[in-house]
Amino acid sequence: MGKGGEVRIIKSRMNELFQLALIDDKMGLTEYSHIKYELIFKYSTKYRVRRPEGFKVWVCRKCKYSIIPNGGSIRLRRSALIVKCGKCGYIRRYKINHSSMVSALNSTL
Ligand SMILES: [Zn+2]
């Protein structure tokens, strides 16, 4: 199989995992979703594949736990989106004019 095909499989596997992890989060099973987020992160770095849409805002970059279900917050400020992890306290700021960020938020929240 060519490299392109492999990447396509990894991508769809990552998207699948992400959807399942979001279901875990909805049910409050954040330890299960955490395992999936870690796996998605590993895949994306190993195969250099872009992580699913929404992953960046929804999951803490540092501890790989979901932000909102673990008591964190996502706040909209005048020019930035401020994401605070409830698990490890990591804070990240995103410039608002990232239209992809806004659509990502709409798809996860
Ligand atoms: Zn964290």
Précis, in short:
The chain has 109 residues and is of the alpha+beta class. Helices cover 51% and strands 13% of the residues.
User: For the residues shown, what is the average pLDDT?
Assistant: 89
Rg calculated over all Cα atoms: 14 Å
Q: Secondary-structure element order, as H and E?
A: HHHEEEH
Number of helices: 4
- Give the overall form: globular
In terms of quaternary structure, the protein is single chain
Percent helix, as a range, is: 40-55%
How far apart the termini lie comes to 37 Å
Structural class given helices, strands, pairing?
Answer: alpha+beta
| Percent of sequence in beta strands | 5-15%
Count every beta strand, where a strand is a DSSP E run of 2 or more residues: 3
Bound compounds: zinc ion
Q: Low-confidence parts, pLDDT < 50 over ≥5 residues? A: none
Q: What strand line-up does the widest sheet have?
A: 1-2-3
- Tell me the domain tally: 1
Report on the biggest sheet.
Answer: 3 strands, antiparallel
Description:
With 109 residues, the chain is an alpha+beta fold. The chain has one domain (3-108). It is built from 4 helices and 3 strands. The model has no long low-confidence stretch (mean pLDDT 89). The chain binds zinc ion. Zinc ion binds at residues 60, 62-63, 65, 85, 87-88, 90.
Per-chain topology:
Blueprint lengths: L2 H24 L3 H18 L7 H4 L14 E4 L3 E5 L6 E5 L3 H10 L1
Antiparallel strand pairs: 1-2, 2-3
Helix pairs in contact: 1-2
The structure holds zinc ion.
